[in-house]
From TrEMBL:
GO biological process assignments: carotene catabolic process
InterPro entries, per database record: Carotenoid_Oase
Protein family per UniProt: Belongs to the carotenoid oxygenase family.
Protein name per UniProt: Carotenoid oxygenase family protein
One example GO MF annotation: metal ion binding
Length: 524
């Protein structure tokens, strides 16, 4: 499917429900996908359709997401509170493929597994059975991302320390502090100890690092919230996890960390969504942190340009520019232009979607796409010298998520972006396909599954130096078959559909984020 699209103002866009005849069936299938998968697997994948591309041989794909939603007779309030479940597909050099999965053995998981009940408050509303007054410690489910770099695999969460996992066995090793060191995860022994940690602004590592392919580094960032505002520390690591640079800046007036960031050779780019945090209901134990967030729809969105410590603007102050209100979710990539401007591509909600409140249909157990705010691909061009911003939707009619580029082109000017495809505006659906856009011609390609199959985040696997030269890899849950499969699409011809599909004998819960590495971590 090929279409021509041009930039459009967000206030010209509307959205709504899918045809009633399809909506109820698809909604039942989508909600049915969010059932616990508590089994852990180690098996060879033998049902393979098509030919496995040579570029995937001797490599490994990792993925993470929530998968355990019940303890005893209680279910989590929101699927994002579920226990982290790591998946690994390893492609051996002889063409055999192996699947393994394990729950991340966080300190909280181990205690709750033994007790068979929830023992901790969670970010999205899951409560302790007892009184939650002054119970400020939040469970770290390590369920958002699986990042492989150097000799480490990290299971990451938004509001806690990442867990190191053995990439060969998927055994949990321990948590990693903001200095990159392995530490024992000590849970607070009392509410008073939790209050002390909270008042001091305990550090957490977000789940969205980015890579700099030119300098061969991974960039992690950490945050600590206090009443005066947010402190963000950014650390660049080399391939052996040696610290290359460390910098820190303040984001005053907010206690809420950005979800993601982008980087160029010159800047780290952070988008500050204008949120307030109603602290009292959280302290009293009446509301979860997510429920205490309120969007300031009358306030502009802020973009922070933070000079990299070894970039051309090193030593210069952080520059803040403002746009009309919108909500930034994920950053695909960013780059510098010769005139000094910065271009950022992001997924996010338009101003009109913010009227439904923070998280809109993401409230409740699983997202209801009948009322979800549309997620669009945005292009933001910042002129630091003038302090001006041009902010527009790239694809007029499509709701998307998880945009990415060829990983060797991150921090450089890109032509192609890849993402999940949910629906045309005016309809409603979960992610049901993948989309590629040519930013030079504004043409897009779409591959869609049937309406009862749902797609996870795509990962780009390079197969050469050209920006289109590679394979798009993603997990698909087929509700009719009650099975999941990994699809592999040619990045040059996405609309042609999978060149290879690897079927699992079981289903997986729709996941969140993952990574691919040109190293083999499976059985010999």
């Amino acid at each position: 499917m090929i279409t021509d699209q041009g930039p459009v103002n967000a206030d010209q866009i509307v959205w709504g429900k899918r045809d009633d005849r399809l909506r109820s069936v698809q909604k039942a299938a989508w909600f049915g996908a969010f059932r616990s998968q508590r089994a852990e697997f180690s098996c060879e994948i033998t049902e393979i359709e098509g030919l496995l591309p040579e570029a995937l041989l001797n490599s490994t794909w990792f993925h993470n997401g929530p998968s355990g939603f019940e303890r005893g007779n209680q279910r989590v309030n929101h699927f994002l509170d579920g226990d982290g479940y790591l998946c690994r597909i390893a492609f051996r050099d002889d063409g055999r493929v192996f699947f393994d999965s394990r729950f991340v053995q966080t300190a909280e998981f181990v205690q709750e597994e033994q007790a068979d009940r929830f023992l901790f408050r969670s970010t999205f509303g899951t409560r302790k059975p007892q009184d939650n007054l002054l119970e400020l410690y939040l469970k770290n489910p390590a369920n958002v991302n699986a990042v492989a770099w150097g000799d480490r695999l990290l299971a990451m969460y938004e509001a806690g320390l990442p867990y190191q996992v053995n990439p060969h066995t998927l055994d949990t090793i321990g948590s990693q502090n903001v200095q990159g060191q392995l530490v024992s995860q000590s849970l607070p022994k009392s509410r008073w100890q939790t209050l002390q940690r909270f008042a001091q602004g305990q550090w957490a590592t977000t789940a969205h690092p980015h890579g700099d392919p030119v300098r061969d580094r991974i960039i992690l960032w950490h945050w600590a919230a206090q009443l005066k505002g947010l402190t963000i520390a950014i650390v660049e690591y080399g391939r052996q996890w040696q610290e290359c640079t460390r910098s820190q800046f303040q984001m005053p007036g907010t206690m809420i960390n950005p979800h993601d960031f982008a980087l160029t050779p010159t800047y780290y780019v952070f988008v500050e969504n204008r949120l307030t945090f109603n602290l009292l209901p959280f302290i009293l134990g009446r509301q979860s942190p997510a429920d205490c967030l309120q969007l300031q729809t009358n306030q502009p969105t802020r973009i922070h340009l933070v000079p990299r410590p070894d970039g051309p603007m090193a030593g210069q102050p952080v520059q803040i520019v403002e746009t009309s209100p919108w909500f930034s979710i994920h950053q695909a990539c960013a780059y510098d232009q010769p005139d000094g401007s910065v271009v950022v591509y992001s997924a996010g909600w338009p101003e009109a979607g913010l009227e439904q409140g923070f998280l809109s249909s993401w409230q409740g157990y699983a997202p209801d796409f009948d009322v979800i705010a549309p997620t669009y691909l945005w292009q933001t061009t910042i002129q630091p010298q003038q302090g001006t911003v041009n902010h527009q939707v790239v694809l007029e009619n499509y709701c998307i998520e998880y945009p990415c580029c060829h990983p060797q082109y991150e921090t450089q000017a890109v032509r192609y972006l890849y993402m999940t495809y949910s629906n045309r505006v005016g309809e409603s659906s979960p992610p049901v396909g993948y989309l590629k856009v040519d930013l030079h011609t504004q043409k897009s390609q779409i591959w869609m599954e049937d309406g009862l199959s749902f797609t996870d985040e795509p990962v780009f696997v390079p197969a050469g130096g050209d920006e289109e030269d590679g394979w798009l890899v993603g997990m698909v849950y087929d509700h009719a078959k009650e099975r999941s499969s990994l699809v592999i699409l040619n990045a040059k011809d996405l609309a042609a559909g999978p060149v290879c599909r690897l079927w699992l004998n079981h289903r997986l819960v729709p996941g969140l984020h993952g990574s691919w590495v040109p190293n083999y971590y499976g059985p010999r």
